[in-house]
């Protein structure tokens, strides 16, 4: 109807380019176009950079009655910088800077700084935008809304990785949980993603679980696999992996009080290549082998759950087979 009233051809379908062009024309001089480009850059970064650099910015024009548009270009633009992904960021308002002065700092994850909000995203520029611009309060709102629209009373967890190998990160994560609890929302538990190698030490694992237990929160192992560094492990490597599985689960049961024990999730079932197209392609991290036969790691898990050597009163001719 609008196009008909304006006496322009009707469209059977609308593309992004149609919207971009119409908004640029309709909202000319209103300062909206730049923000359209910024939003687009979150998932089409290279497209926006290419578009900006292909514009004839600062070019000279003068009236020419022979030109269709009545203006002819008289010279290329000067003093125009090349657009890069560093230019594609919303400005942080003074109000937000007053609330959180750290917003002006580029977040970088280091051993010293612990938690960061500088995570990967589809735009490839490493900014997790909610956290980067909203500060820690975005998590408060996330838990507040999750609880509000959670009719079945599901437990709400904060979850992160490398907690067993990075005590500073673990401490920052606990501070993060305390911040949420102290600002109007509630975290029921903390999850640890344990993608570890068989060289992880008992001291590291015990220290992490003791620290988590001290929070009083529910604690769960949300992801667990143990790499051995090869797709074809030796007998010694398989034994070391089994011992590591048993050590981690035993530490969990010994250091986390029973009323705080929430769950343990083994990350994928087997070493079969179909389960590892995108994760640990050149390793054998699971408790079943590529043919779904039980590995020594399977017994390590069973021993930890049983709290004893299950082979003492249960006999199987070969733990490596079904």
- Spatial strand sequence of the major β-sheet: 3-4-5-6
First-to-last CA distance: 69 Å
Shape: elongated
Strand content: 5-15%
Describe, in plain words, how this protein is organized in 3D:
With 322 residues, the chain is an alpha/beta fold. Helix content is 36%, strand content 12%. A four-stranded parallel β-sheet has the order 3-4-5-6, with helices on one face. Strands 1-2 form a two-stranded antiparallel sheet. Helix 3 packs across helix 4. It is elongated, with a radius of gyration of 28 Å. The termini are far apart.
Summarize the SSE layout with pairings:
Elements: H1 2-5, H2 16-26, H3 33-41, H4 45-54, E1 60-63, E2 71-75, H5 94-99, H6 129-134, H7 137-148, E3 157-161, H8 167-181, E4 189-197, H9 202-213, E5 218-227, H10 235-255, E6 261-266, H11 296-306
Parallel strand pairs: 3-4, 4-5, 5-6
Antiparallel strand pairs: 1-2
Helix pairs in contact: 3-4, 9-10, 10-11
List keywords for this structure.
two-stranded antiparallel ribbon, about 325 residues, alpha/beta, 11 helices, 4-stranded parallel sheet
What's the short story on this structure?
With about 325 residues, the chain is α/β, with parallel strands linked by helices. The protein has helices at about 1-5, 15-25, 35-40, 45-55, 95-100, 130-135, 135-150, 165-180, 200-215, 235-255, 295-305, and strands at about 60-65, 70-75, 155-160, 190-195, 220-225, 260-265.
């Amino acid at each position: 109807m609008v196009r008909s009233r304006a006496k322009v051809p009707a469209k059977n379908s609308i593309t992004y380019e149609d919207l971009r062009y119409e908004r640029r024309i309709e909202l000319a001089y209103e300062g909206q176009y730049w923000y359209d480009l910024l939003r687009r850059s979150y998932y089409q970064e290279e497209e926006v950079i290419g578009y900006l650099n292909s514009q004839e910015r600062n070019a000279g024009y003068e009236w020419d009655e022979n030109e269709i548009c009545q203006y002819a270009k008289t010279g290329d633009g000067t003093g125009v910088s090349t657009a890069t992904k560093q230019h594609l960021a919303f400005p942080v308002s003074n109000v937000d800077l007053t609330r959180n002065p750290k917003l002006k700092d580029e977040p970088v994850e280091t051993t010293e700084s612990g938690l960061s909000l500088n995570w990967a995203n589809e735009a490839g520029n490493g900014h997790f935008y909610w956290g980067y611009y909203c500060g820690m309060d975005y998590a408060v709102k996330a838990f507040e809304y999750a609880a509000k629209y959670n009719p079945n009373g599901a437990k709400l967890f904060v979850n992160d990785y490398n907690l067993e190998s990075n005590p500073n990160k673990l401490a920052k994560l606990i501070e993060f949980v305390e911040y949420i609890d102290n600002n109007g929302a509630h975290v029921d538990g903390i999850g640890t993603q344990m993608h570890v190698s068989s060289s992880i030490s008992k001291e590291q694992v015990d220290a992490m679980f003791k620290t988590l237990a001290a929070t009083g929160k529910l604690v769960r192992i949300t992801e667990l696999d143990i790499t051995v560094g090869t797709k074809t492990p030796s007998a010694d490597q398989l034994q070391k992996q089994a011992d590591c599985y048993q050590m981690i689960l035993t530490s969990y049961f010994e250091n986390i009080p029973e009323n705080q024990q929430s769950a343990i999730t083994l990350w994928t079932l087997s070493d079969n290549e179909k389960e590892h197209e995108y994760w640990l392609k050149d390793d054998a991290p699971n408790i079943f082998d590529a043919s779904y036969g039980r590995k020594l790691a399977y017994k390590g898990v069973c021993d930890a759950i049983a709290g004893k050597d299950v082979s003492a009163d249960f006999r199987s001719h070969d733990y490596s087979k079904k």
